[in-house]
Amino acid sequence: MAAYFGTSIGVETWTSRRFLVSSLPPPSHPPPTLVFWRTPPVGSYKINTDGCVKDGFASGGGIIRDSSGQCIRAFFSFYGDCTILEAELRAILDGIILAQRLGLSVLWVESDSTLAIHCITKGGGPWHIQATIRHIRHLLALDRDTITHIYREENQVADLLASEGWDRRCYHEYSSQDLPRRHRSLVQIDRFGLPTVRGL
Asked: Which positions fall inside the RNase H type-1 domain (predicted)?
């Protein structure tokens, strides 16, 4: 008799749970949207950067473009053993240093790392990144320069450069003339405002 009631309760419990699960609405996912890279205002320069960590080693890369979307200079670098947040911040710092070395001011920095941007603009983060954050803040004039988030799908040139830094394991710069063909193709896509699908 005890076995009978135990089986009955088990079936009822299973049936109730199945009903509850089947009655739940399906998980909602945002519909795919079209996103595209935006040129900076006339007289300013945009720096797009990205960090990369694979197999315990980090790299970064970035590109500086003018208000017409033309490449001014691009770079990649290998950072060795560090976290993804460190790589994102070091790529941002490298991009700013490069822009200032070229005599460029009124900068718009974009990164697809919301955490890196938050650490720069709001503070916080682990102790070992604080020196990099202070250096970035020292170089940026936040009343004149801008730092914002960009979706990964809009940041493909910087992503490609960061991966190249990991593959080649060195620091290197490209001028607009010697930018590789694949990089130039992505720059042209951005320059002409062609959209990329986000959310598929």
From this structure: 48-164
Model confidence pLDDT, tens digit, residues 143-165: 889 999 999 999 999 999 999 99
As a whole number of angstroms, the distance between CA 51 and CA 110 comes to 12
Domain boundaries, the chain: 35-193
Say if residues 92 and 63 touch (Cβ distance below 8 Å).
no
Locate the DSSP E strands across the chain.
Answer: 33-35, 45-54, 57-65, 71-80, 107-111, 146-149, 172-175, 196-198
**pLDDT reported for residue 8:** 41
Instruction: Look at 1 and 187; give whichever has higher pLDDT.
Output: 187
**CATH fold of 35-193:** Nucleotidyltransferase; domain 5 (3.30.420)
Taking phi first (over 0 means left), then psi (-120 to 50 degrees means alpha), and beta for anything else, what does residue 105 get? beta
